[in-house]
TrEMBL record:
The lineage of its organism: unclassified sequences, metagenomes, ecological metagenomes. The keyword Transmembrane helix does not apply. This is protein-L-isoaspartate(D-aspartate) O-methyltransferase. It is found in: Cytoplasm. The keyword Cell division does not apply. It comes from marine sediment metagenome. GO terms for cellular component: cytoplasm. It is an enzyme of class 2 (transferase). GO terms for molecular function: protein-L-isoaspartate (D-aspartate) O-methyltransferase activity. Coiled coil: none annotated. Its main location: cytoplasm. Its EC number is 2.1.1.77. It holds the Pfam family PCMT.
Length: 205
């Protein structure tokens, strides 16, 4: 997977490649989907959600140019796979998941794989960020939205970066926005398709 899907494209960050090579992706899927775990594609994880394609996980993390001590918020824990890759690189990772059952399963897996001490998970609407722990050097959003939630921008540190898919339900552009003097400077990275970010408790499905 690392050679054929990541190095052969444009993933060059050594820490990202090391982490992607180390985290067992199949462990985040039910046994009946293990044969699809290392496919060059997203895979369903239940409740209509998906674990992102390996390339997209690596690409989003590379786009943050992480340092070990950075304080990073992930919005959309899902299976916990990307959380584990982030935990390989960082001292600590803050993550939020709005669907309690997915969050509980993710935490169980992360504990079993030894990442439990590094992961601070919250069952909450991550579109509101995590005010108690802000500011963050980086925010990585794994669900799509029509605009960048105001709270996430507010909780970004100066020179912090947010990676977020922005667009309609069917098609989005992955944006990297850097906060410079309080304002966001946006770069368009690639087109992508993510499940939608829940903006209110009541539109979960
Ligand atoms: N990074 C995940 C991919 C998860 S898919 C992985 O590696 O498996 C996106 C996730 O975002 C889903 O689990 C979905 O429940 C969650 N999500 C959607 N809206 C959310 C919100 N407002 N706050 C937190 N999580 C949200």
């Amino acid at each position: 997977m690392v050679q054929t899907q990541l190095i052969s494209r444009d993933i060059i960050d050594k820490e990202v490649l090391r982490a992607m090579g180390k985290v067992p992706r199949h462990s985040f899927l039910p046994v009946e989907l293990w044969d699809r775990a290392y496919d060059d594609a997203p895979v369903p994880i239940g409740e209509g959600q998906t674990i992102s394609q390996p390339y997209i996980v690596a690409y989003m993390i590379q786009a943050l140019s992480l340092k070990r001590e950075d304080k990073i918020l992930e919005v959309g824990t899902g299976s916990g796979y990307q959380t584990a890759v982030l935990a390989e690189i960082l001292e600590k990772i803050y993550t939020t998941e709005i669907r309690p059952e997915l969050a509980r399963k993710a935490m169980t897996r992360l504990n079993e794989l030894g990442y439990g001490d590094k992961v601070k998970i919250r069952i909450a609407n991550g579109g509101l960020g995590n005010e108690d722990e802000a500011p963050f050097n980086g925010i990585i959003v794994t669900a799509a939205t029509f605009d960048i939630p105001r709270q996430l921008v507010e909780q970004l540190a100066e020179e912090g970066k947010i990676i977020i898919p922005v667009g309609s339900a069917e098609q989005q552009i992955l944006i990297r926005a850097t906060k410079i003097k309080g304002k966001l400077i946006e770069e368009k990275l690639l087109s992508c398709i993510f499940v939608p970010l829940v903006r209110k408790e009541c539109d979960k499905n």
